[in-house]
TrEMBL record:
InterPro entries linked to this entry: CAF17_C, TrmE/GcvT-like, YgfZ/GCV_T_CS, YgfZ/GcvT
Residues in the signal sequence: none
Superkingdom of this protein's organism: Bacteria
GO biological process, one term: iron-sulfur cluster assembly
Domain CAF17 C-terminal: 148-203
Keywords noted in UniProt: Transit peptide
Organism: Oleiharenicola lentus
Protein name per UniProt: CAF17 C-terminal domain-containing protein
Statement: the UniProt record of this protein carries the keyword Transit peptide: yes
């Protein structure tokens, strides 16, 4: 299992909780592998070592590839990538993800959120497989087709508000910022907003009756 946002310790603890009678060994191999995300053009031609893996990724929205190699070969692969493609910082990668409206787990949608609040029911939930923990909640959401909150893309001037920053529409608290990135003096961010009383065409603010933040669309 590969996860780019959650801590390995938290993920292992979560998986352990679902092991009841299965003979499964879970191990953190983070330190044994090096990883790169390549996007924005043709995949560079690389000479990869034994054990390397390359697969299509959704993290940047546009066609992208994840490259994972044993850490002992990280420097040689990094040198090839540096010669074939430009390096991007974390903010640039976050911008690509946000433009594609792809939630980061658990930053944008976590254990206290419902999958449908981040449109994960469309890509990560099976409604036909056998019994599993939490199936009743998922089935109810599918049958009712409603959630009371949802992730939205928002934009404004300056740096993105810190994760957890409250957002208001009029006098009501509308939700909170989950993640963000900057571009040209503005920010693009993901926010979890309550759908009750929300006006998608009205601005948001960082205080009651505040303005200056635009809702772009629901994820």
């Amino acid at each position: 299992m590969i996860c780019f946002s959650a801590s390995a310790a938290v993920l292992l603890a979560r998986l352990e909780a679902y092991l009841i009678a299965d003979e499964v060994e879970l191990r953190d191999e983070t330190a044994e592998w090096a990883n790169w995300l390549v996007w924005g053009g043709a995949t560079p031609v690389l000479t990869l070592p034994a054990g390397a893996q390359i697969f299509v990724s959704r993290r940047a929205g546009s066609p992208a590839q994840e490259i994972i190699v044993p850490v002992a070969h990280a420097s040689e692969v990094a040198a090839q990538l540096s010669a074939a493609a430009g390096a991007a910082d974390r903010n640039t990668a976050e911008l690509a993800r946000l433009r594609a409206a792809l939630p980061a787990v658990p930053t944008d949608i976590g254990p206290r959120d419902l999958p449908a609040e981040g449109a994960l029911d469309e890509v990560a939930i099976s409604f036909t497989k056998g019994c599993y923990l939490g199936q009743e909640v998922i089935a109810r959401l599918k049958n009712l087709g409603q959630v009371r909150r949802a992730l939205h893309l928002i934009e404004g001037d300056g740096a993105p508000p810190a994760p957890g920053t409250a957002l208001f529409q009029g006098e009501r608290k509308a939700g909170e910022v989950r993640s963000g990135a900057t571009e040209g003096g503005q920010f693009l961010a993901m926010a979890m907003l309550s759908l009750v009383h929300l006006d998608p065409a009205a601005p948001l603010g960082l205080a009651p009756h505040g303005r200056g933040i635009k809702i772009l669309r629901r994820v």
